Amino acid sequence: MKRNLLKLSILVLLIVLTLTGCRAAQQKAATDNYAPAPQASYQGESLEKVNTGGFSYIVMADSTTHDVAERKMIMTARIELAANDLEGLDESVISLVQGYGGHIQRSFFNNKEGNQYWEFTLRIPSHSFETGIKEISALGKVQSSTASGQDVTEEHMDLTARLRVLQKEEERLLELLTKAVTIDDFLQVESHLSRVRVDIEQTTGRIKYLDNRIDFSTIELLVRPVQGMVEPDLKGFAGLAQQMKAAFRRGINGVVALIAGILVTTASLVPLTVILIPVALVLFLIVKRRRINRKPPQPPISM
Known about the structure:
- The chain is built from 6 helices and 7 strands.
- 55% of the residues lie in helices and 21% in strands.
- The radius of gyration is 47 Å and the shape is flat.
- It is α+β, with helices and mostly antiparallel strands and 303 residues long.
């Protein structure tokens, strides 16, 4: 009896082990044969999920890799010149810049004695940047000159891609706005749409700013008069004409300076004179009246 019970237990155990092994083999076969379903592919586009309140939708943004045909550079330069004469310099600079199709963004002339100079901020097309620097440098003697370039290609591409995403997001929101059923849904979509439009305006403004800086280079120009110019010391008849001319010029300058000094002094005394004349007149009348009052009476004439 015990032997039969032992045989039965062994038989049940073998059956259980056999069933367990078959199930494991089936699971392994199912795992080996499994292959993930291919995901949808969009050539040149990426998917971005946007949640707006109770709405959820996908924005497809173009992410195709663009070949950079031309680097986008912001070119700037600063030039300091020394010129023999500052008179008419602004007209020369204006004519030069306009000849390239550019414009003067800022100009300033300091006319303080001993510290005269011109300052310009010039904008010229970038394709004329190097030629423009050479012609501007020819207006005087170059004291210093620096030029630099800022590569904004990556930023410009990022902003352009962001703008496309925002514009497509705006289109989806406008579609959802027409499908909104409840007031709450309408307000949620409209609120998100307003934020998207603000982002579009900011991104568009930044792109326009970069385009302007890329298309038109900036040149800062500072021009001062040549310092320490000394007339040649010519002696004898060889330099007689030059000496007479210089002496005559110094004499004219001296006379002009004298007349100018007299006029300036007179002008400065006018306000004082206007105040002193009435005061002097009042004092004169007071003194005259006192003298009349103090005059002794004349003795009577005897007959």
